[in-house]
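# nightly structure sweep
# worker-07 picked up a monomer target from the shared queue
# config: single-sequence mode, recycle default, output format = structure tokens
# input follows
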Amino acid sequence: MNFLATKSHYISWPVIAFLDFVTIIGFDDLLYPLQNQGLSVVFTWVFMVLTFVIPYEMSVSQLGATFTEQEDGGLSSWVRHSTTDTLGYWTAWMYWAASLPYIVDVANSVVVSFGWMITGDNSLGKQMSNFTFGLLTFIIILIFILLQNFFKHSMEVMATIGGGAMFLMTVLFVVMTGYSLLHGGKIATQPFNLGSFIPHFSMQYFSTTGLLMFAVCGAELVAPYLIRMRNPKGDFPKAMWLVAIMTAFLTVFGTLSLAIFFNANNLPHDLKMNGSYYAFQLLGQRLGLGNFLLAIFAIVQAIYMMAQLAVLLDAASWVIAGDTAADFMPRWMSKRNKNGRPINSYVLTSGLCLFLLLMSGTLPDINSIFNWLLNLNGIVFPFKNCWVFLAFIAVRLQADKFDAAFVFIKNKTAAVAVGSWCFVFSLVCALLSFIPQDVKFATAAYDQQLLMNLFSVFVLFGAGLIMPLWARLERRKLRSEGDQFTN
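# output follows
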């Protein structure tokens, strides 16, 4: 029985789009690329949208339209049915493991948003110890795991409200920025000319591009919910196009608006953690509204981040407990509670999230913790993207075997070439992102973060080797007990 499917409740394609949107990009995702690459990030965003985001969204659309009635696993189902069971298992594991730094990062952001709602300023880092910050983050993760097991459809409601509100706040920010300029507002970033948008290609530039890829990816996260759409083959591509359009608008125009309020050549050191609040605070002050917009944004941000957390915890746990071949996973991983939830997946998720929190707790302060967890996503998410394009390439090479209502690039050779480009681009971004950011080369902080990057990725991905061994021992034990019973 498939516990995601119900006869009485369907999810419409706009809701699927907002479920996806809240896990892909928010206002925060504009700030750290601006801090890493300055105003030239506008060029990078345009390049990414045209050469990666649209092919990525449309590849996911074709895969979703091809595998609409498969098991719960989403991306792992796509890879398993288009390649082998072994690759399907590794897709499930790496996809799930890649979501964990993001889950912790989003839970961190929930704590930060409540800090702004309570204090109205950026004093959280001064008032709270690393231990308290980590403890609150872990408590929030546990609370959301419990909530998802007791309240049906809460995730859909939160995602629709949070995604819609965040998109409207971003549109408001862009419109109000234009209004401010027309009424005498000045541009903070100088010079603000064509030369400022031209990138200075360097190791720093290339090592931070993985974070941009992380900012715009996650469309396949809603794959397990395809079977809850009334007409997934026709409606899923519509949802992906809506997500692509919203992403393009948010990245390009949002970044241009930020450059008006922030000097892109001299940004606050805590921009990644607090920049979005600074932005709405500055906008409100320039428009004579005081901290009104800041207060509204803090509430929207809290809802948006909680919606992200709900979707991430639910979808990621279905991936690891769903369509993974029985030969690779011990039976306890597929155990469901009375509500049909993969309870042991949630337990494993909590355990590895705690590992990441303990690792990050060795850093000097809350801002460093926030930045490191965020940067870790720039490593693991591009690795995860490789599986999307592997499945897409496999499906296109076996066009006679797989039939889809939506086909991205009808010419097979061109489609495989585009998929191969996206695969290689993702892999290169992942490898370069191991280089630490926000710290200077040849310092103790640089060496520490490089070791943390290598060790955390080794644990997250390498732990996937344990499950097949565990499953093998479990089967051996069952056979042994069976032989004893027959004797």
